[in-house]
Design a protein that fits this description.
about 400 residues; alpha/beta; five-stranded parallel β-sheet; about 20% strand; elongated
């Protein structure tokens, strides 16, 4: 796919109505063209065999071959084809969708529940336009990374000027490399007064799975996560991550007391915040609400991080992982007004989308820029003072 070339889109759904809605949605996007339509997974695989496809929209539940199996076969035939799952909003669909994201689906789009074909088409066109823009951005970044100048030139981390000259700082690394970036300060974490907060979006389920499978079973503090997802899907994600990692991962519920060694995922469609308790029990409780979206997101990373900055009186480790947009940037800015906050951003090479981490790095808000497979070890070093080789 060249810079000026349209994104070639194919789709598969077993219902004629949704094939029509999806086709109309694709045709509304100037930078996309529809090159194939299939009635099930078997036909979807045939489309990929016979056509060049940049983006395939797959229904999760289809006869003969479901979306998950079709995804596997499409990736075998054409690894460069991005696949987005198109899912009904039910618990069963959510579980299957999370499985597809683990296998390698780029994103998922819930089927809209409206009373109007035009409204459904308009909502889907908005979502698809976002995905098409994402593919265009990724293609630009690939071309830049592949250029001879990008391979031979070391770029200092944006926003790090002035910090690198400090004798206590490590050398500046090229943004996106696997090396550690500038370390601005050391935060002395107290396991009894610490909190880990994580913000993540596109590519998040896989990133969280990899991260949690490398974490120790006992961290001595709670972990709060905002993953951009709609209702139904976050409960399935929490269950999936818990089974895979063996950690205590739950979808957060309003009013529950935060506990050490438990990982809370913000419920889809709701903001998550914390509140310091003033009764004899003390501690902190989780609150959820359906206030207006922030950065077009609900749940929003900024909402959680700003709540933590306001309410939590201890050491905070904030982590920004793969995702599109800048949600979390303002929250990290607020958190860093406290000297007890330390921030890690995922590096470019290990991100599905280097948007949210880039926003942090370019503003000089990251204490370290690390590849995903090094973040769990760094968490252990900071929170548990446990060196991981």
């Amino acid at each position: 796919m060249n810079a000026g070339q349209k994104v070639r889109v194919a789709l598969a759904d077993d219902t004629a109505l949704y094939r029509k809605i999806l086709s109309m949605a694709v045709e509304k996007i100037p930078s996309a063209e529809l090159v194939g339509v299939a009635v099930d997974g078997v036909a979807a695989v045939e489309v990929v065999k016979n056509k060049s496809v940049d983006l395939f929209l797959l229904d999760v539940c289809m006869p003969r071959m479901d979306g998950v199996e079709a995804l596997r076969k499409i990736h075998e035939l054409s690894p460069s084809t991005a696949v987005v799952m198109f899912s009904g909003v039910t618990s069963a669909d959510a579980e299957t969708t999370v499985e597809a994201l683990e296998i390698g689906a780029l994103e998922f789009i819930p089927k809209p529940k409206t009373n109007s074909l035009d409204e459904s088409m308009s909502l889907l066109a908005q979502e698809l336009n976002r995905v098409v823009r994402l593919l265009k951005i990724r293609q630009i970044h690939k071309r830049i990374s592949a250029s001879p100048s990008a391979r031979t030139t070391e770029r200092p981390a944006p926003g790090a000027a002035g910090v690198a000259s400090s004798a206590a700082s490590r050398p500046v690394a090229s943004v996106g490399t696997g090396r550690v970036g500038v370390v601005r300060r050391f935060v002395n974490f107290d396991a009894h007064r610490s909190l880990i907060v994580i913000g993540v979006s596109t590519g998040g389920p896989n990133a969280l799975n990899q991260l949690m499978c490398m974490l120790p079973k006992r961290l001595g503090c709670p972990v709060l996560i905002v993953q951009h997802m709609p209702p139904f899907f976050t409960a399935s994600l929490a269950s999936f991550l818990s089974k895979k990692s063996g950690l205590d991962v739950v979808e957060a519920t309003h009013g529950e007391l935060m506990q050490a060694d438990r990982i809370y995922i913000a419920p889809g469609g709701k903001h998550m915040e914390i509140r310091k308790r003033t009764d004899a029990m003390g501690g902190y409780e989780i609150t959820t609400n359906e206030a207006a979206p922030v950065n077009s997101c609900r749940p929003s990373v900024d909402v959680l991080f700003q709540s933590v900055a306001s309410e939590f009186s201890g050491s905070i480790l904030s982590i920004i992982l793969t995702g599109m947009g800048e949600d979390g940037c303002q929250g990290v800015t607020t958190l860093r007004r406290s000297p007890s906050t330390y921030t890690i951003a995922q590096n470019e090479e290990s991100c599905v989308v280097y948007g949210m981490p880039r926003a942090i790095v370019e503003r000089g808000l990251a204490d370290e820029v690390l590849p995903l497979d090094q973040i769990a070890g760094r968490i252990s070093e900071l929170v548990l003072k446990r060196k991981v080789s």
